[in-house]
Amino acid sequence: MGQGSSGTTARALRWVVALALISAALLAVPQSATAQPQLKPPPGDPVVVSLGDSYISGTAGRWRGNSDQFLFDRGGTDRAWSREDGELLGDSDRSKIYGTTAKTGCYRSNSAPIISATKSGLAGRPVNLACSGAQAANVLRASEGGVGLRGEKPQNDQLAALARTSRVNLIVLSIGGNDLSFPELVFSCISAYTLRDDPCKGKQQPHLEVELPAMRAAVAAVLADTKATMREAGYSDSDYRLVLQSYPNPLPTADEDKYDGHRRVFKWTGGRCPFTDPDMTWTGSTAIPAIAGAQAKAAQSQGATFLDLSNAFDGHELCADGTSHPLGNPKATDTEWIRFVDYTGQGDYAESLHPNFYGQQAIGICLAKAVRLAGDSTCTGVPEKGLKALTVKSR
Questions:
Q1: Where is the signal peptide (predicted)?
Q2: Which pLDDT score, from 0 to 100, does residue 338 have?
Q3: Collapsing DSSP states into helix, strand and coil, what is residue 238?
């Protein structure tokens, strides 16, 4: 009786020891080795997203062409203008076009390219995360050195939150111009005209050549971070399309300038295109193609699709021959698709040289057509023709 009890006790102790060893072994397994739930894109209707700077956020979407008029609706061009019954002059309320971002300065318009694209056949709910003034660092996640802008988190941090709750199937990016100090370049060219100095291209071309490699690297880094953001949200690279768009040329060549041969004052007071003839030609023939070329290489390095918009505004650039300033009932066929240099206070100077209401519709149409193609593409406009004349071809 005593021996049987002793044997039973020994066996019980061995079981306790064995269970303790097993428990200890399980506790010793690294956390990374345990099974983790596999993230996947959330179900639901598709969402299309825009990231980047003012050329895609919608800055200048307030304007349907340019007009010399200052009263009332500025010749029908000011979409923010309205007049209540009993009012004499009416008022322009920018929040009608830019919403709350009229105050923050991101200038996300209700005609921004991502919105216009969905109205032109692109499937998906548009979400505009772009912000006026953004550089590459304002898109990168904070964990990758990115910084917020105008009180908002870095754009890819916003994208990460969106991608976990909504099924993102297209991301469109416009970035790089502000990393090239483009606003300073424009100011230099305006100053050259105003002060009757030498054309700005002599000084700006060397700067452009020096800064382009760094800009290309910065754009590539943003594309890489965008892909990493989506992977961490549970997406594979094939679950969505990543598109990098270039900038449309804002100026015609000197030969296509409608003020060619007119007195100098017309370009300043009427057209508000204060650029020398050599600088106008240089912009379209050299500067814009060089920027687009650097962006194309960045897209190629990261496996993104490239949309070349360099010639999308052909015949509708600022002061282009065949365009006019409407006196009412503006139309896309014969108006400029770029906001003029607003140094008289009709609107905001920050809107100057940005795609206006028609220009943003044009970019949206280009985008909607481009995503139907398998690879890179280029969009081209037609002088004195409307938005329906835009063509997109494989690049």
A1: 1-35
A2: 98
A3: helix
Per-residue pLDDT at 38: 61
- Identify whether 61 is part of a domain: yes
**Range(s) of the domain holding residue 383:** 45-394
The three-point CA angle 388-295-216 to 5° equals 160
Query: What is the β-pairing status of strands 377-380 and 391-394?
Result: antiparallel
Using one digit for the tens of pLDDT, what is the confidence trace for 235-265?
999 999 999 999 999 999 999 999 988 888 8
CATH of the domain at 208: 3.40.50.1110
- Token readout for 72 is 């009332």
Q: In whole angstroms, what separates CA 212 from the centre of its chain?
A: 18
Closest among 301, 204, 287, 212 to 248, alpha carbons compared = 287
- CA end-to-end distance (rounded Å), the chain: 94
Q: pLDDT for 36-73, tens place per residue? A: 456 788 888 999 999 999 999 999 999 999 998 988 99
Q: Is residue 19 part of a domain?
A: no
Separation CA 225–CA 162 (nearest Å)? 15
- Could you tell me the pTM of the whole model? 0.90
- Cβ burial of 128 (10 Å; 0-12, 13-18, 19+) is buried
Any domain includes 107: yes
The answer as to whether 31 is a domain residue is: no
**Domains in the chain, number:** 1
How many Cα atoms within 13 Å fall on the side-chain side of residue 353? 22
Q: What is the largest CA-CA distance in the chain?
A: 124
